[in-house]
């Protein structure tokens, strides 16, 4: 005996195949990447600029969405739910690759970055607070690379990692959509 929702092909459970694999891989890569970012910040004291912090948002989204999508795949959730989770992962990481590309271009001087982290400092506050602020605040500029390895900055590696995660999520989406 089948339920009505199981009789409709789109709502049959997709199984644990590509949706589970893709969501687990994206979650693990995102968690490892954000752990690496925190390592660079807290242990190596390479402080993030405002654009670096914005690039972390996609990882903060990918981890819980990836976990929820993996749990949904594991429990045999309907295919549209799995496809929605994988689409969110693919789009978020692809957008993050775009932001990383923009940041890398700012670092290489291909274009100007946002004025809050690569332009001149305009508002220094009042004179009484200026000296105390200068002693405690380290300005991290978006257009100055603090660390490179094999010619790429952390923003450049973010592009590659985000593209990898987007490709994995897209693979999971396409394979899950094709399953009958």
Automatic annotation (TrEMBL):
Coiled coil: none annotated. The chain crosses the membrane at residues 20-44, 56-73, 80-102, 154-174. Signal peptide: none annotated. It holds the Pfam family DsbB. Keywords: Membrane, Transmembrane, Transmembrane helix. Gene3D superfamilies: DsbB-like. It is a multi-pass membrane protein. It is found in: Membrane. InterPro entries: DiS_bond_form_DsbB/BdbC, DsbB-like_sf, Uncharacterised_DsbB. This is Disulfide bond formation protein DsbB. It comes from Bradyrhizobium japonicum. The lineage of its organism: Bacteria, Pseudomonadati, Pseudomonadota, Alphaproteobacteria, Hyphomicrobiales.
């Amino acid at each position: 005996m089948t339920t009505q929702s199981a009789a409709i092909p789109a709502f049959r459970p997709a199984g644990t195949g590509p949706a589970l694999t893709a969501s687990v891989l994206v979650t693990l890569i995102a968690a490892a990447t954000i752990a690496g970012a925190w390592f660079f910040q807290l242990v190596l004291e390479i402080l993030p600029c405002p654009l670096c912090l914005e690039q972390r948002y996609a990882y903060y989204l990918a981890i819980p969405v990836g976990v929820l999508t993996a749990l949904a795949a594991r429990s045999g959730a309907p295919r549209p739910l799995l496809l929605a989770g994988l689409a969110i992962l693919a789009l978020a990481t692809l957008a993050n690759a775009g932001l990383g590309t923009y940041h890398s271009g700012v670092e290489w001087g291909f274009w100007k970055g946002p004025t809050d982290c690569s332009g001149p400092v305009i508002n220094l506050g009042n004179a009484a607070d200026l000296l105390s602020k200068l002693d405690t605040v380290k300005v991290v500029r978006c257009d100055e690379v603090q660390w490179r390895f094999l010619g790429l900055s952390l923003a450049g590696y973010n592009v590659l990692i985000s593209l990898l995660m987007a490709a994995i999520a897209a693979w999971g989406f396409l394979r899950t959509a094709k399953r009958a």
